[in-house]
Amino acid sequence: MSASPTMNASVAKSLLSVKNVTMKFGGLVANDDISFEVAEGSIHAVIGPNGAGKTTLFNVISGFFPPTSGAVEFDSQPITGLPQHAIAQAGLVRTYQLVQLFKDLTVAENVRVGFHRVTKGGIAAALFRPGWAKAQEADLTRRTAELLNFVGLTAQAEMKAEVLPYGQQRLLEVARALAAEPKLLLLDEPAAGLNVQETDQLAATIEKLSARGVTVLLVEHDMSLVMRVARRISVIDFGRKIAEGTPAEIKTNPDVLAAYLGGTETDA
Amino acid sequence: MITLTQLIQSLVTGVGVGLIYGLVGIGFCVIYNASGIVNFAQGVFVMLGGMICHAILSKFGMPMLLAALLSIPIVAISGILIEVLVVRPMWNRGAALFAIILATLATQIMIERITILTLGDQPRSFPEFTLGGPLKIGDIAIGYQYFWIMGCGALMVGLLWLFFTRTTMGRALRACSQNRESAALLGIPVSRMLMVSFALSAALGAVAGILVTPTQFTAYNVGTPFGVNGFIAAIIGGFGNAAGALAGGILLGILQALAIVIFGAGFKNVAALTVLLLVLFIFPSGIFAGLKGKSH
Amino acid sequence: MTSPSITSTRSLLRTLAPVAVVLTVMGIALMSSGYVVTVIGFAAIYGIFCTGLNFFMGYTGQASFGQNAFACLGGYGSAILCGGLYWDPLPAFFVSMAFSGIVAAIIGYPTLKLRGHYLAMATFALGLITYEISIEWVSLTQGYMGYSGIPPLGVGKFELVSEKHQLIALTVILLVGIWISTRLRDSRFGRALRAIAGSEPAAQALGVNVARYKLLAFVIAALYASAAGSLFAHFIGFISPEVFGGAMVVQSFTMLYLGGIGTTWGPAIGALIVSMLPEFLRGLKEMQDIAYAIILVSILIFAPRGVFALIGGWFRPKAKEGDAP
Q1: Are A173 and A182 a contacting pair, CB within 8 Å?
Q2: Cβ of B105 and C110 within 8 Å?
Q3: Tell me, what's the ipTM?
Q4: CB-based contact B117:C301 (threshold 8 Å)
Q5: In the predicted model, what is the mean pLDDT of residues A222-227?
Q6: Considering the domain A7-267 in this protein, what is its CATH number?
């Protein structure tokens, strides 16, 4: 598959490098010597059968736990072993497989929390509200409205997040992550639990994201979504990377077909 | 400097008090294993055991053994009441963990106040089960009550062991502690097991309270120190492990007895609480973290 | 586009209504006898304590069963500095607060790493330790019998001798406390706290340093608690270990849950209601703590998010059934 590198990958600089990451839990090897690069501006997907180690890999990248061995570099800086919030501060923002909204906050407030990384101000600013803090809050109101408009949740802005239907909760999570202005957005199975229309809307949103210059890395089961949006795909099976390439290459890769044998999703 | 006599003396009293802590600690474990709940009102059973036994003794002039045997079921019923009135309604509604803890804490205060209203707020004690003593071996003096504590403590542990291994109900409780869902699938009435566990652990507390009262005193507010020390015993022993709680209790009892010799009696609770915090800080996820997965 | 102005009017009303309630109650108290003044004074002090507790338990969604420890530090700090060393109340007040804050930071750092039952027991132990020390360190605290001879609040030569003057001071301090709470809630800082209550992993993934914010909330709660303890010492002129004992924990939780956990005014309103409760249970003085406990347990069972949240919930829009995936 390396015979035909896409123009995209050879030109753009690498934003995320996963280098020989191995993750063991006791005797179980969840990730075995996995390496890949995510090019800046790309939409990169990691796929694989259930239990292949995708979510573990995601957790290693986002700092949920450090790898047993190997390294992760983000934006040319090593981030292996940094605490999660520090990695997020560096611009690598993730979502979770199970939606993790701030349920008691309104939809708009959820998005405002998202701006945490790109805003400033602590207790003193909150108490005395100097001019810049007021300007910042006003700016956040405007940008929140814009983001809610972007994902189509303007009408729901003042509702509590927990009353949203599931598909909209997913979209809110994306909007909130976008508020953090990530350089790289990690989406962990964003289509899980969505119906066809909602998945469609999500795909459109991801494509719009990319157009805004956000690099996306997603782990996904839903092949229709992956084949539609991904520019590059890494395939993991039994903790090892077995293939990488463009969607067209992956579709015809014999190893991938073997791994998915019996699966009917690949031709979607 | 501690003399050898003091050392041996504190070892003996430490083992005695430690057994009491161990019984309370086992009480924590029994409820925790059946439900994943830590009952912060555990110490109240120790207090009730002593207070009710004293009330029966002084009001009706019954023989010691009868008074003790009467107070234990009364305390067990109080345990069942807590379970039915406070814990189960929250349990059924899927209340947050800390809300249940708070409710048991409030229950403890409630029971303490009711005790003041009905039995008074003065410290009380009753005579040792066997009068006379202490037994003197050289310079070492051992009160007869300590033999009762050790004997009855050992008896309780034996009975518990028989209960958990030989009876259907005991086996069902153990099944719940291993996996509540599968226990329910096997037809074990899990919610009734919760009630049994409260009754059992209340009875254990009552025994501890009756045994320990002659060596010191009891009052409406002795529950908290016993509860905390029992909790520490349970933590040292790996929460949920009954044998470990017993060993933990004895270890804690000895440590405290030594601390009293070295620092004086006043700060023994401070010392115990500091030990608690240190143990928690050094093993932030619990000493035997593997047990935690069970609770969800 | 008219909706923002409508919501802002409504939120203005929502802010002003509780202010009016508090000021009315204080006003009535000022026109009443000394006994009512004492009761409302207690309410104001507890209101301050609960407003602080609300930072940690309401906004941040954590649990501490030992916040009475810091009220104890504040109370004895002011008692010893003013009653024993003849300091002015004001510097004693702030020095006690600073001390409590530092202790909270040092103790909180390892404590807040704990979870579940361990966190609950560790915080509970904090309250017990200060309680034991306040009993046993007799040379410093005068032990069981309590510390008396604490001067009333005042600045320099000017002492607030009359209880009514003290009540005015307490009300002002309570209002300032609530104002701070309101300001912090609606800010980047407050949003981070409330995000932690919602989902720690998500907050972390958005760059919120969860451990740091939890500790800050804990320290803020300790500062409020210390202030409440100091004010209690000055208001009554006497403190004993029992004042800051376990019953305080249950009582303050009752207030917090009754008034509405996580709201800005709830803690103070809850403190007012619960403090006035014994007046309705006149003749049943000893039953007071039992009543608190029963109320608290009932709330925990039937309205775990607070009574006002329950009432508010009846009016809140529910998700439309057809929208579910």
Answers
A1: no
A2: no
A3: 0.83
A4: no
A5: 85
A6: 3.40.50.300
